[in-house]
């Protein structure tokens, strides 16, 4: 059924009330996973209707968005979808950027952030070239189109170094750590061959991984959220802690670096900026996501305005909300599938039950169909008035996760 707002939109050619807000706003999101779901839940609270385009018939976002079944890499599906929206955005960067650009031109619908930004970011090598050209500090990197280039990368970077897929990478799928000379050829094979599009990166001997959410308004102003520490397990985000336990000058340098990276991209919305903190205190950018990000989930309960709310505000051209922390410390624990099927559900429920009986803890469940190992199925945000209190609360839910932060 068509949401009432979309019906009203057809009768209201101006869309804008006296207060300058659209009377009815339909935001279309390419992708209907958990990020789209949390975006749609935030939008619903602001009276904004969402639609999502996702191939799965049980997309998690459908709980709060009208769901169009279709693929975000299918040009025809994107063109049709665009016609029912006032603004288009994405919850995943692996979409068909050319089709999105054509659909926007044909329908006159705004796309935020711009298809050009998504195109740069979805190719991690193009992203590196872009940021290097804008003076953002990065680990050295090199294109690896063939065996000679691979050999040259090993000679230049030494061992270990990182071999990465340029495209369709997430949760470390697409990365291969080359530890020995023999590993290099294995890495190429594991990542689908040179034809797949590979590049190499110098190893970053980080002491911590940091991340900053940055929201960018339609007029190009950027606003950084607090700097968080991110801890990965098997390449998947596991725990984040805000504020990161780093020196104040490191936190401000990370915030400025993240703002600088986002400032050299076009379009409005929220961006996730991943960084490495090196032993000498310097920072390198790892990668940027043009959408809400796992390292920003804590903002739902730990900040005055969540990353999802600010994304919706930004793409609509509304005033941005305050990104400050609303507590002393906010920790996020991902609920990762620990086993397939019923056993995985049993373990996730045990974790959630402990969270429900812990002060300051909030459960966010994604409603994904089925349960699979190593898959993000939800997260728990834990707030405290101090770092010690938040960590103690986390320890009563998951001692191992608290141990990872200690
Ligand atoms: P995401 O799910 O964040 O999109 P991804 O699949 O794009 O991840 P990366 O962010 O490139 O992968 O890398 C995943 C993790 O691997 C990083 O968070 C970091 O822990 C490690 N890593 C990546 N690049 C390097 C590097 N050059 N040196 C050392 N470790 C690295
Ligand atoms: Mg990535
Ligand atoms: Mg990453």
UniProtKB/TrEMBL annotation:
EC number(s) stated in the UniProt entry for this protein = 4.1.1.21
Compositional bias ranges of the Low complexity kind: 1-7
Disordered: annotated span: 1-17
* UniProt keyword annotation of Transport present: no
Which residue ranges does the record assign to the ATP-grasp domain? 128-316
Q: Which keywords are on file for this protein? A: ATP-binding, Decarboxylase, Lyase, Nucleotide-binding, Purine biosynthesis
Question: To which pathway does this protein belong?
Answer: Purine metabolism; IMP biosynthesis via de novo pathway; 5-amino-1-(5-phospho-D-ribosyl)imidazole-4-carboxylate from 5-amino-1-(5-phospho-D-ribosyl)imidazole (carboxylase route): step 1/1
The record's GO molecular-function terms, alphabetically, read: ATP binding; metal ion binding; phosphoribosylaminoimidazole carboxylase activity
Q: Respond yes or no to whether keyword Nucleotide-binding is given for this record.
A: yes
Q: Name one GO biological process term.
A: 'de novo' IMP biosynthetic process
Catalysed reaction(s) here are:
5-amino-1-(5-phospho-D-ribosyl)imidazole-4-carboxylate + H(+) = 5-amino-1-(5-phospho-beta-D-ribosyl)imidazole + CO2
Q: Which family does it belong to?
A: In the C-terminal section; belongs to the AIR carboxylase family. Class I subfamily.
What is the protein name given in its UniProt record? phosphoribosylaminoimidazole carboxylase
């Amino acid at each position: 059924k068509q949401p009432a707002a979309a019906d009203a939109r057809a009768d209201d050619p101006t869309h804008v009330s006296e207060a300058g807000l659209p009377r009815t706003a339909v935001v279309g999101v390419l992708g209907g996973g958990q990020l789209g779901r949390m975006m749609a839940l935030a939008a619903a609270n602001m009276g904004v209707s969402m639609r999502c385009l996702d191939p799965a018939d049980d997309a998690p976002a459908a709980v709060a968005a009208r769901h169009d079944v279709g693929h975000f890499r299918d040009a025809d599906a994107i063109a049709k979808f665009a016609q029912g929206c006032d603004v288009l955005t994405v919850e995943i960067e692996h979409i068909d950027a050319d089709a999105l650009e054509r659909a926007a031109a044909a329908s006159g619908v705004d796309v935020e952030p711009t298809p050009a930004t998504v195109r740069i970011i979805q190719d991690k090598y193009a992203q590196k070239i872009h940021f290097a050209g804008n003076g953002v500090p990065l680990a050295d990197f090199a294109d690896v189109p063939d065996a000679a280039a691979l050999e040259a990368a090993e000679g230049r970077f030494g061992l270990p170094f990182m071999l990465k897929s340029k495209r369709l990478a997430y949760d470390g799928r697409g990365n291969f750590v080359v530890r020995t000379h023999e590993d290099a050829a294995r890495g190429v094979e594991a990542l689908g061959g040179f034809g797949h599009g590979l590049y190499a990166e110098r190893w970053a001997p980080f002491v911590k991984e940091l991340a900053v959410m940055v929201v960018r308004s339609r007029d190009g102003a950027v606003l950084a959220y607090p700097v968080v520490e991110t801890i990965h397990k098997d390449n998947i985000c596991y725990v984040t802690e805000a504020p990161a336990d780093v020196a104040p000058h490191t936190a401000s340098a990370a915030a400025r670096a993240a703002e600088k990276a986002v400032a050299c991209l076009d379009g409005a919305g929220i961006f996730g900026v991943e960084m490495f903190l090196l032993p000498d205190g310097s920072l390198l950018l790892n990668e940027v996501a043009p959408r809400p990000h796992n390292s920003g989930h804590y903002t739902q309960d730990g900040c005055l305005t969540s990353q999802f709310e600010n994304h919706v505000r930004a793409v609509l051209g509304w005033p941005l909300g305050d990104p400050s922390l609303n507590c002393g410390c906010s920790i996020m624990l991902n609920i990762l599938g620990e086993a397939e099927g019923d056993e995985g559900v049993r373990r996730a429920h045990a974790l959630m039950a402990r969270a429900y009986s812990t002060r300051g803890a909030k459960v966010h469940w994604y409603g994904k169909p089925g349960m699979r190992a190593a898959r993000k199925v939800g997260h728990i945000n834990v707030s405290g008035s101090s770092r010690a209190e938040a960590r103690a609360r986390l320890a009563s839910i998951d001692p191992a996760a608290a141990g990872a932060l200690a």
